[in-house]
Specification:
heterodimer; A: alpha+beta; 5-stranded antiparallel β-sheet; B: alpha/beta; 8-stranded mixed β-sheet; 5 helices
């Protein structure tokens, strides 16, 4: 993974000093609440329902074991012994005291981490595919480009007071696992007609109140032109994006109001001025950053293993886990392992300090000391020898980290909701619990197969409900929590926004209604059809009829 | 009035005129005029044997200034609220693309914690909001010693030094 040099380290150290000074001036009354707000947000610090919330950046989700141990230490020392992984592959602490945040940042800086631009109207943490570097369907590893974007966007002087937040995702594989089309800028690494690899640029996707699947405005740019093109898009947005209404300030609204062609034309015009200047990335720099992401030393004899197959044959629980929680590796004899943070009795994405330490140690032992956070709030070991899978599984199971549910109904995406978030209208963690309580039969879950439930406690859509196969949106109706369901959303290559099922559902009915939706699916599915495929074939009517007829 | 200019707090005799009727008489002395007034009274102003300066708001695109850049010893860019980032782009364009060499001044809701970024976009002087300590604000120009990306302050991408 990327290692800081003196320059990178100086920037995070100076950031700690700057924020310490800003915090002191705020506490001394020299900065008003209103003046301090954007400053603390630019550092991931929110004032929440119970206490401040601090969001730590995990660039493109990649962590070393040393960094994960520091995150555990911070949870122990400054918080209540746990933390929460978010859908931007970041980590959130729910209970730090404002006065201690500069010390937390200093601790983070000691392991090459920070909280820069994890909130605020600036360029946020760039996200990517959790299987980057090991996936068989990869055209090129996206992580070097994520790191190049990270450096360019960090404290970008012109784009730190944008009309609204700005999120970038990069995918290097043919299968989109990074929800690229629902980002302000989405980048697909693609090959052009003559076999060169560059980027297809999507602009203006997003969720929130007005969801859009972003259009491609430039099917191919060369890698050297990546930053100049991004700069052109951002400059057009910074100049012309709406600032009169925060709900209309995202770039998706500008793209939609101008139309994709006109927006693309303006970007092209801007780009023509800067394309061949100092923004052009030297090939030497691309190669330098790439060198940090070289493959580890794989064991050439790993493929000779036979123990994995025999362990599966003799142990049903292990075989269930292997079926759901492994992902195929480009190197024969290796697997990627998904560590489920969706155990039935825990809020999705939450981990304890003890679990973090434990996972860090296991990663040293089994996966070259690297851990990846996924955008659906799980963790991944990307380089595990098949001969080690059984012992790793046993160890994970000891700490409730081997729930065999990846991609299944209970592998839900869930925002913190009313339990923690000041914006929420309704709870999402209690709904996750209700669903876990009702659907506790693993054979049933495996039979239902791949289904993505995504849940947000308000229309800001942090839980990505619009692109869930089943989306759940919490709403407040005269002081009562109701839940609006959508069906048929997807954040992958076939991205689509879910269709609204009908009127909101009472809180205690949500899991039962999901049960009815699944009944309709089971009755209609043909052969191995997945939920989304069946839904797209039969449409919303049979689901609607079943859910509302029996109410 | 005290302003920050060229990284120091200095006394400055420019006077900002926020509003003036376009048919009002041409003011005397070193005044920063609304650009609309300049447009309406261009010929009369050019006959004056003095320095000229105008200010624009975030909604005015820099391109409208291009024919007159040579006449301005200062262009002031307004921040109606410090969170309104449009003038960062205006400054970058005036410096980098349109090669403006005069003083670029930040006016309006100009506060300490934005100065580092403003400087990087090519701003050269700052009228700090009146209720704030200008000597204190000066410190922020030194917030960072390393800059990752190229900008109007002539910095090259940091990787060129690696």
């Amino acid at each position: 993974m990327y290692k800081y040099d003196n320059y990178d380290q100086t920037i995070v150290n100076e950031r700690v000093a700057q924020f310490r000074d800003q915090t002191e001036r705020f506490l001394a009354g020299k900065l008003s609440e209103e003046e301090f707000r954007p400053l603390r947000l630019m550092n991931g610090l929110y004032v929440q329902r119970h206490a401040p919330m601090l969001r730590v950046a995990i660039p493109y989700g990649l962590l070393s074991s040393k960094q994960l141990k520091m995150l555990a230490h911070i949870a122990r020392k400054y918080d209540k012994n746990y933390a929460h992984f978010s859908t931007r592959q970041n980590l959130q602490y729910n209970w730090p005291a404002l006065e201690t945040v500069p010390d937390i940042l200093a601790d983070l800086a000691s392991v090459e981490m920070h909280a820069i631009q994890t909130s605020g109207n600036d360029i946020r943490n760039t996200t990517s595919d959790q299987f980057a570097g090991i996936a068989k369907d990869e055209i090129e590893d996206p992580r070097p480009y994520c790191e190049i974007i990270r450096q360019w966007s960090t404290f970008h002087p012109e784009f730190s007071y944008l009309p609204r937040k700005f999120k970038i995702a990069v995918s290097g594989a043919t299968h989109d696992r990074a929800a690229v089309q629902v980002h302000d800028i989405g980048l697909y690494l693609v090959k052009n007609d003559v076999g060169e690899v560059g980027f297809n640029v999507i602009v203006g996707g997003g969720l929130g109140r007005t969801p859009f699947i972003g259009p491609s405005i430039k099917p191919f740019i060369q890698k050297q032109d990546l930053l100049s093109y991004l700069e052109a898009v951002l400059r057009v947005y910074n100049r012309y994006g709406r600032r009169d209404n925060m709900y209309k300030a995202r770039i998706k609204i500008l793209v939609n109001e101008l139309g994709k062609e006109e927006f693309a034309r303006q970007v092209e015009e801007e780009w023509s001025h800067i394309k061949d200047g100092v923004m052009k990335i030297d090939q030497k720099e691309i190669d330098r950053v790439k060198s940090f992401f070289a493959s580890p030393d794989y064991d050439g004899a790993a493929a000779d293993d036979t123990s994995f197959e025999s362990a599966k044959a003799s142990n049903k629980a292990f075989s269930n886990w292997a079926k759901r929680n492994l992902f195929p590796h480009k190197v024969s004899g290796y697997s990627a392992v998904v560590i489920s943070l969706k155990a039935p009795d825990t809020p999705p994405g939450d981990v304890t300090d003890e679990q973090m330490d434990y996972i860090a140690d296991l990663s040293d032992q089994y996966s070259f000391g690297e851990i990846v956070v996924t955008h659906d709030q799980n963790l991944v070991f990307n380089n595990v020898k098949q001969s080690d899978l059984f012992s790793l599984w046993e160890k994970l199971a000891e700490k409730k980290l081997a729930t065999p549910n990846i991609g299944l109904l209970t592998d839900m995406i869930c925002c913190p909701g009313l339990d923690f978030c000041a914006l929420a209208n309704a709870g999402s963690i209690p709904i996750a619990k209700q669903i876990n309580d009702k659907f506790d039969n693993i054979d049933y879950l495996h039979d239902i197969g791949e289904i993505k439930i995504k849940m947000s406690g308000c229309m800001n859509a942090c839980g990505h409900h619009h692109v869930g196969h089943i989306g759940i949106l919490g709403v407040d109706k005269k002081g009562e929590e109701f839940y609006q369901l959508t069906l048929g959303g997807s954040a992958e290559n076939d991205a689509s926004l879910g269709d609204r099922l009908g009127p909101g559902i009472a809180k205690e009915e949500v899991a039962n209604v999901i049960g009815r939706i699944l009944d309709v699916y089971v009755e209609h599915r043909q052969e191995d059809e997945k939920f989304l495929e069946t839904y797209r074939r039969v449409g919303i009517s049979p689901f609607k009829e079943r859910v509302y007829a029996s109410n | 009035m005290r302003v920050i200019k060229d990284k120091a707090v200095v006394n400055d005799d420019w006077q900002l005129i926020r509003e003036i009727d376009t048919d009002a008489a041409v003011p005397e002395g070193k005044v920063i005029l609304p650009f609309a007034y300049w447009q309406a009274n261009r010929e009369a102003l050019l006959k004056q044997n003095s320095e000229h300066a105008v200010w624009i708001d975030g909604a005015t695109q820099t391109e409208v200034l291009l024919d007159d850049l040579e006449h301005f010893s200062m262009i002031a860019l307004d921040f109606p609220a410090f969170k309104d980032g449009r003038s960062y782009s205006h400054a970058s364009l005036l410096r980098n693309r349109y090669n403006y060499k005069g003083d670029l001044r930040a006016i309006g809701d100009v506060l300490r914690d934005q100065l580092f970024f403003l400087q990087r976009c090519g701003m050269s002087s700052y009228e700090i909001r009146k209720d704030k300590d200008i000597d204190d604000a000066l410190k922020s120009l030194q917030d960072f010693s390393v800059r990752y990306q190229a900008a109007a302050d002539d910095a090259l991408p940091i990787y060129r030094q690696r």
